[in-house]
């Protein structure tokens, strides 16, 4: 009798354990299913976010290209508006006397140093110092902006100055150059060190518009 009772208890116990294992397995399956659902949802959200991010990157790239194109057009228009301008560097602050005397002062030093006849109409429309506060005495003077009425006259003045490689005024080296837009000047500053090395090594070079450097060697 005891053996039968023990056997029955073992059967019941085994059935209980088996039932608990089945229930536990079902719970595990249910948890796995929930986890898979959450993973699928997360993957769908990530995929959607990646698509939106890609769309945003493409749109941003398009905007940047358009901005670059518009900036190039704006720079081109600004350069065209400066075609008749000349920048003069090195003239000491106050050498012109007053703002009203700037045009006669510029005409005089150009005629005297570039051998421009008095009969030649310089056609200077206006002339003034670069905007900004007057620098301290030990600093470089501000440049002078000169606007000519004629592009040809401006080019002739530039050519004469370049032929003489500038001139001096009261022991100050004076140089002339085109009036470039800030974007062009910034690009040219990027190879200032290269120009310095070329000068030190006495290698002839040219700075071509808008911002190109051409070196000359013995063979061309």
From TrEMBL:
Alphabetical list of Gene3D superfamilies matching this protein: L1 transposable element, RRM domain
Domain L1 transposable element RRM: 83-177
Coiled coil: 18-59
InterPro entries: L1_RRM_dom, Transposase_22
Keyword DNA repair listed: no
Keywords: Coiled coil
Record's keyword annotation contains Glycoprotein: no
Protein name in the entry: L1 transposable element RRM domain-containing protein
Organism lineage string: Eukaryota, Metazoa, Chordata, Craniata, Vertebrata
């Amino acid at each position: 009798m005891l053996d039968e009772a023990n056997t029955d208890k073992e059967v019941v116990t085994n059935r209980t354990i088996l039932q608990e294992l089945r229930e536990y397995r079902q719970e595990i399956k249910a948890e796995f299913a929930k986890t898979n659902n959450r993973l699928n949802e997360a993957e769908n959200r990530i995929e959607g976010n990646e698509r939106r991010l890609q769309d945003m990157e493409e749109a941003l790239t398009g905007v940047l290209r358009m901005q670059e194109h518009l900036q190039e057009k704006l720079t081109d228009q600004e350069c065209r508006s400066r075609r008749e301008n000349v920048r003069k560097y090195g003239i000491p602050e106050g050498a012109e006397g007053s703002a009203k005397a700037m045009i006669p002062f510029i005409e005089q030093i150009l005629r005297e140093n570039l051998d421009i006849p008095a009969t030649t109409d310089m056609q200077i429309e206006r002339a003034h110092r670069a905007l900004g506060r007057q620098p301290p005495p030990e600093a470089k003077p501000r440049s002078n902006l000169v606007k000519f009425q004629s592009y040809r006259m401006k080019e002739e003045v530039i050519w004469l100055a370049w032929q003489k490689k500038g001139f001096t005024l009261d022991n100050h080296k004076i140089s002339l150059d085109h009036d470039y837009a800030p974007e062009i000047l910034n690009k040219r500053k990027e190879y200032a060190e290269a120009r310095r090395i070329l000068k030190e090594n006495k290698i002839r070079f040219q700075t071509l518009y808008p911002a190109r450097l051409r070196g000359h060697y013995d063979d061309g």
